[in-house]
Amino acid sequence: MEGRYEFPNAAFASAALKKAGCSLGRLQRDAPRGILHGEYDIQKWRNLRTDDRDALHGIMVKRFYGTGGPVVIKLYKKCPDEVRKIIAEESTGYRIIPPPERE
Question: Domain limits of the chain?
Answer without folding.
Answer: 3-91
